[in-house]
Amino acid sequence: MGGETIYKMFHSPRVGIHPTRRLRTEDFESIDRLITCPAIFQERIRGEFDIRATVVGDRVFAARIIFAPLEDVIDTRFVETEVTPWTLPADVEEALIQMVADFGLVYSAVDMRYSDELGYVFFESNPEGQYLWLEIEANLEISHAIASRLLRKNC
Question: pTM of the entire structure?
Fold first, then answer.
Protein backbone atom coordinates (compact mmCIF):
# COMPACT_ATOMS: atom_id res chain seq x y z
CA MET A 1 0.00 0.00 0.00
CA GLY A 2 1.36 3.37 -1.00
CA GLY A 3 0.12 5.62 1.81
CA GLU A 4 -1.12 5.39 5.33
CA THR A 5 -2.67 2.03 6.24
CA ILE A 6 -5.80 1.58 8.33
CA TYR A 7 -7.41 -1.59 9.67
CA LYS A 8 -10.69 -2.83 11.06
CA MET A 9 -11.07 -6.00 13.11
CA PHE A 10 -13.86 -8.41 12.24
CA HIS A 11 -14.12 -9.70 15.80
CA SER A 12 -12.41 -9.26 19.11
CA PRO A 13 -12.42 -10.99 22.47
CA ARG A 14 -14.06 -7.78 23.75
CA VAL A 15 -17.75 -7.07 23.28
CA GLY A 16 -18.67 -3.85 21.49
CA ILE A 17 -17.93 -1.78 18.43
CA HIS A 18 -14.35 -1.76 17.27
CA PRO A 19 -13.27 1.39 15.45
CA THR A 20 -11.22 1.47 12.29
CA ARG A 21 -7.71 2.59 13.26
CA ARG A 22 -4.39 3.67 11.83
CA LEU A 23 -1.83 0.88 11.62
CA ARG A 24 1.05 1.87 13.90
CA THR A 25 4.50 0.35 14.26
CA GLU A 26 3.62 -0.99 17.73
CA ASP A 27 0.63 -2.88 16.26
CA PHE A 28 3.08 -5.28 14.61
CA GLU A 29 4.04 -6.55 18.09
CA SER A 30 0.65 -8.29 18.32
CA ILE A 31 0.15 -9.10 14.63
CA ASP A 32 0.08 -12.82 15.49
CA ARG A 33 -3.42 -12.27 16.97
CA LEU A 34 -4.76 -12.14 13.43
CA ILE A 35 -5.04 -15.92 13.61
CA THR A 36 -7.97 -15.54 16.01
CA CYS A 37 -9.11 -11.99 15.19
CA PRO A 38 -9.07 -11.41 11.41
CA ALA A 39 -8.99 -7.84 10.13
CA ILE A 40 -9.34 -5.80 6.95
CA PHE A 41 -6.28 -3.76 5.97
CA GLN A 42 -6.50 -1.04 3.36
CA GLU A 43 -4.99 2.22 2.25
CA ARG A 44 -6.46 5.23 4.00
CA ILE A 45 -8.53 7.33 1.61
CA ARG A 46 -9.07 10.97 2.39
CA GLY A 47 -12.26 12.34 0.93
CA GLU A 48 -15.08 14.81 1.06
CA PHE A 49 -17.76 12.50 2.54
CA ASP A 50 -18.75 8.89 3.13
CA ILE A 51 -21.57 6.96 1.48
CA ARG A 52 -23.60 4.12 3.01
CA ALA A 53 -25.50 2.39 0.22
CA THR A 54 -28.04 -0.18 1.36
CA VAL A 55 -28.83 -2.67 -1.39
CA VAL A 56 -32.18 -4.50 -1.22
CA GLY A 57 -32.63 -6.71 -4.27
CA ASP A 58 -32.52 -4.38 -7.27
CA ARG A 59 -32.88 -1.19 -5.24
CA VAL A 60 -30.17 1.00 -3.72
CA PHE A 61 -30.78 3.44 -0.88
CA ALA A 62 -27.82 5.76 -0.51
CA ALA A 63 -27.00 8.29 2.18
CA ARG A 64 -24.22 10.83 2.29
CA ILE A 65 -22.42 11.04 5.63
CA ILE A 66 -20.82 14.44 6.06
CA PHE A 67 -18.17 14.98 8.72
CA ALA A 68 -16.32 18.14 9.75
CA PRO A 69 -13.63 18.77 7.12
CA LEU A 70 -11.10 19.86 9.73
CA GLU A 71 -11.37 16.60 11.63
CA ASP A 72 -8.90 13.83 10.93
CA VAL A 73 -11.69 11.28 10.45
CA ILE A 74 -10.97 7.60 9.96
CA ASP A 75 -14.24 6.07 11.25
CA THR A 76 -17.36 8.25 10.97
CA ARG A 77 -19.22 6.11 13.53
CA PHE A 78 -17.39 7.94 16.29
CA VAL A 79 -17.74 11.60 15.28
CA GLU A 80 -20.63 13.99 14.79
CA THR A 81 -22.03 13.71 11.28
CA GLU A 82 -24.84 14.94 9.10
CA VAL A 83 -26.69 12.24 7.15
CA THR A 84 -28.66 13.14 4.02
CA PRO A 85 -30.16 11.19 1.10
CA TRP A 86 -27.79 10.80 -1.85
CA THR A 87 -28.24 9.82 -5.47
CA LEU A 88 -25.45 7.65 -6.80
CA PRO A 89 -24.55 7.64 -10.50
CA ALA A 90 -26.45 4.90 -12.37
CA ASP A 91 -23.28 2.93 -13.16
CA VAL A 92 -22.30 2.85 -9.46
CA GLU A 93 -25.80 1.68 -8.45
CA GLU A 94 -25.75 -1.03 -11.13
CA ALA A 95 -22.30 -2.20 -10.00
CA LEU A 96 -23.46 -2.45 -6.37
CA ILE A 97 -26.61 -4.40 -7.31
CA GLN A 98 -24.54 -6.76 -9.45
CA MET A 99 -21.90 -7.25 -6.73
CA VAL A 100 -24.51 -8.11 -4.10
CA ALA A 101 -26.24 -10.51 -6.52
CA ASP A 102 -22.89 -12.11 -7.43
CA PHE A 103 -22.37 -12.79 -3.71
CA GLY A 104 -25.71 -14.65 -3.74
CA LEU A 105 -27.30 -12.02 -1.49
CA VAL A 106 -30.36 -9.79 -1.71
CA TYR A 107 -29.24 -7.41 1.07
CA SER A 108 -26.00 -5.69 1.92
CA ALA A 109 -24.82 -2.41 3.42
CA VAL A 110 -21.95 -1.00 1.37
CA ASP A 111 -19.54 1.59 2.72
CA MET A 112 -17.69 3.95 0.40
CA ARG A 113 -15.91 7.29 0.52
CA TYR A 114 -16.14 9.96 -2.15
CA SER A 115 -12.98 11.80 -3.13
CA ASP A 116 -12.81 14.52 -5.78
CA GLU A 117 -9.54 12.96 -6.90
CA LEU A 118 -10.57 9.28 -6.90
CA GLY A 119 -14.36 9.31 -7.21
CA TYR A 120 -16.29 6.61 -5.31
CA VAL A 121 -13.95 4.32 -3.38
CA PHE A 122 -15.34 0.99 -2.11
CA PHE A 123 -14.52 0.03 1.49
CA GLU A 124 -16.68 -2.99 2.34
CA SER A 125 -19.92 -4.85 1.78
CA ASN A 126 -21.58 -6.00 4.98
CA PRO A 127 -24.45 -8.49 4.56
CA GLU A 128 -25.47 -7.83 8.18
CA GLY A 129 -25.03 -4.04 8.06
CA GLN A 130 -27.33 -1.80 10.04
CA TYR A 131 -29.74 0.44 8.17
CA LEU A 132 -32.37 1.83 10.58
CA TRP A 133 -30.26 4.85 11.52
CA LEU A 134 -30.12 5.80 7.82
CA GLU A 135 -33.83 5.34 7.45
CA ILE A 136 -34.45 7.70 10.36
CA GLU A 137 -31.80 10.34 9.64
CA ALA A 138 -32.05 10.43 5.83
CA ASN A 139 -35.73 9.47 5.54
CA LEU A 140 -35.02 6.42 3.37
CA GLU A 141 -37.70 3.72 3.02
CA ILE A 142 -35.40 0.75 3.56
CA SER A 143 -37.70 -1.16 5.97
CA HIS A 144 -40.52 -0.95 3.44
CA ALA A 145 -38.26 -2.32 0.70
CA ILE A 146 -37.13 -5.19 2.95
CA ALA A 147 -40.72 -6.01 3.95
CA SER A 148 -41.85 -5.93 0.30
CA ARG A 149 -38.98 -8.23 -0.62
CA LEU A 150 -39.86 -10.67 2.17
CA LEU A 151 -43.51 -10.75 1.08
CA ARG A 152 -42.52 -11.93 -2.39
CA LYS A 153 -42.75 -15.68 -2.86
CA ASN A 154 -39.22 -15.97 -4.25
CA CYS A 155 -37.08 -13.55 -2.22
Answer: 0.75
Domains identified in the chain, total number: 2
Please give, one letter per residue, the 3-state secondary structure of 93-120.
HHHHHHHHHHCCCCEEEEEEEEECCCEE
Across the beta sheet with 21-22, the strand order is 21-22, 5-9, 39-43
Amino acid letter at 4? Answer: E
How many other CB atoms are found less than 10 A from the CB of residue 116?
7
3-class DSSP state of 86: strand
Give yes or no: residues 28 and 55 share one domain: no
Cα 10 to Cα 24, 30, 37, 93, 106: the distances in Å are 18, 16, 7, 26, 22
Q: Which residues pair with 83 in a beta bridge?
A: 65
Strands 5-9 and 81-86: unpaired
Using pLDDT thresholds of 50, 70 and 90, give the confidence band for residue 45. confident
Strands 59-67 and 21-22: unpaired
Integer-rounded Cα radius of gyration of the chain:
17
Q: For residues 102 and 82, is the Cβ–Cβ distance under 8 A?
A: no
Same domain, residue pair 69 and 90: yes
CA 120 – CA 110 distance, rounded (Å):
12
